[in-house]
Amino acid sequence: MTQAEAKNVNVWYNNFQALKNINLTFEPNTITALIGPSGCGKSTFLRLFNRMNDLIPKFRLEGMVTVNGQNVYSDDVRLDEMRKNVGMVFQKPNPFPKSIFENVAYGLRVNGINNKKILEETVEHSLKQAALWDEVKESLKKSALELSGGQQQRLCIARALAVQPKLILMDEPASALDPISTAKIEELIFELKKTYTILIVTHNLQQAGRISDLTAFLYLGELIEYNHTKKIFLNPDDERTQNYITGRFG
Amino acid sequence: MNTKQLKQKTAFIIIGTLSFIVVAILVIILGFIFIRGIGVISWEFLTAMPKDGMTKGGIFPAIVGTACLVLGSMIFAFPIGVLSGIYIHEYLSESWLKKFLRMMTNNLAGVPSIVFGLFGMALFVNYLSFGDSILAGSMTLGLLALPVVIRLTEEALKSVDDGLRLGSYALGATKIQTIQKIVLPIAFPNILTGLILSIGRVSGETAPILFTVAAYFLPRLPQSLSDQVMALPYHLYVLATSGTNMKETRPMAYGTALVLVTMVLIINFSASLLRRRINRKNKMV
Ligand SMILES: Nc1ncnc2c1ncn2[C@@H]1O[C@H](COP(=O)(O)OP(=O)(O)OP(=O)(O)O)[C@@H](O)[C@H]1O
Ligand SMILES: [Mg+2]
């Protein structure tokens, strides 16, 4: 079964074409890295899968995007329902100015789940999955803003996990963090692969090499190459990929 | 010393002097009112009715009147203003309508208050037949405060980080939920401070109440919304310009000014206190 798919996808912002005829499929329990120079459309592509581009005025899409076999852009899709199946982690940690507990519980609460026992269990489970539980279990009532940047990002991951998505989108999730926090996040992402399908945008090629199974290289809105990460890094088919990997542009 | 440093130093001195002058003027005004007014301040002045052609007694009905008007205007302006601000900022996309509404709000904020007074008289007093009343006066003052409340609400909403909105949407929250659970709690302290500041502005206005509610002399407390009341700014105006015995009422005028200024200062001070308190606590909403 395919977890997510983009079929003949073209995207415009106003008159500018940001994505050009992209075809990609993502299998369950894989980590796919999206790499490419700044402005090549990585974030735009990622945001297709939870329709966050919809918030941008003058955004226009052609083609089909599916998650769990469902066309997420079909007219009968309810955005809030659909987004529950897709978690997202942003570049800059964005915990809500609420307690650690309420941050993780938020996704459940907005979906009408207020049962104390369910909330407590989910919060604990999610924080454990995000490898944060041991550090915060004594202080769940504390404000999330008092955590370090790395802890905040793991909290945001826990928050995304709490609604039990299948697909998780990460847009440069470690680029604002120090090396130790980055290592922790990478370890965590690798661990999450057992349960989730992960798409991760990264500018850090070593990172892509370390954690991903597959890598897609985008360039000026086009998908240049999509293959096993090893293949992309050791022996790419396209010269442009080769140039990017070896740092000749980007 | 090179020219760059010299320029900086000169600019610093000029700006420093100017701000000192501004502060000094403020202190002189306040000191002047305080010295002239403190003599008549007494328990009786604050709690008694005026008598003997306003040369004796107190200003109690004017204090109560101003309190009624401020409260009434806020009950009117706060919900409408905050909801409009939310609508303009959160629901309208960048379009000519949004720009138009912004422009109109700004223009409205710049309209002289006497114009609001005339409009209030035409609409509330005459057309809607409220007569000279607390209702008509409160609504007129509310209209005056409305653009300020809308603007400040917009500003407060603008200062909420968009990343938090996106984070909320990504978790499957709807727009309403995001506004209710994330945006408003964060913006609330600033909205509240804005509200309190607009109270300060409204409580000192004379022109809007002149034709809509203010009584020249009414030594009793209002019984209903359709009563007229005395109000501090108008009472001050009366005492200073058209009393029965100008010489005798002059100190009373300064006393009234002192009470009014003190009220406004207390309100503004509590606003900044509130903001500081909430900012310290706003790691959690
Ligand atoms: N809101 C927007 N309105 C108009 N154009 C946009 C918008 N967002 C992105 N674009 C354009 O679309 C193209 C792709 O942008 P996108 O953010 O997807 O790139 P990216 O690969 O994520 O870049 P980066 O690595 O810098 O994050 C860019 O050329 C950008 O200028
Ligand atoms: Mg990006």
Provide the CATH architecture of chain A.
3-Layer(aba) Sandwich
Question: Which small-molecule species are bound to the chains here?
Answer: adenosine-5'-triphosphate, magnesium ion
Give the percentage of residues in beta strands of chain B.
under 5%
pLDDT averaged residue by residue of chain A: 93
The CATH C-level class name of chain B: Mainly Alpha
Shape of chain A: globular
> What is the H/E string of chain A?
EEEHEEHEHHHHEHEHEEHH
The fold-level CATH name of chain A is Rossmann fold
Question: Main β-sheet of chain A, in a few words?
Answer: 6 strands, mixed
Uncertain regions of chain B: pLDDT < 50 for 5+ in a row?
none
β-strand amount of chain A: 25-35%
**Cα end-to-end separation of chain B:** 51 Å
The level of helicity of chain B is over 70%
First and last CA, distance of chain A: 35 Å
Q: Structural class given helices, strands, pairing of chain A?
A: alpha/beta
Shape of chain B: globular
Number of helices of chain A: 10
Cα Rg of chain B: 23 Å
Provide the fold topology.
The complex is a heterodimer of chains A (250) and B (285).
Chain A: E1 4-13, E2 16-26, E3 31-35, H1 42-46, E4 59-67, E5 70-71, H2 79-84, E6 86-89, H3 100-109, H4 116-129, H5 133-136, H6 149-161, E7 167-171, H7 179-192, E8 197-201, H8 205-211, E9 214-219, E10 222-228, H9 229-234, H10 239-245
Parallel strand pairs in A: 3-8, 3-9, 6-7, 7-8
Antiparallel strand pairs in A: 1-2, 1-4, 4-5, 9-10
Helix pairs in contact in A: 3-4, 3-6, 4-6, 6-7
Chain B: H1 3-37, H2 43-47, E1 50-51, E2 56-57, H3 60-91, H4 96-110, H5 113-127, H6 134-158, H7 162-170, H8 175-203, H9 207-210, H10 232-241, H11 246-281
Antiparallel strand pairs in B: 1-2
Bound molecules: adenosine-5'-triphosphate and magnesium ion.
Adenosine-5'-triphosphate (ATP) binds next to strand 2 and helix 1 of chain A.
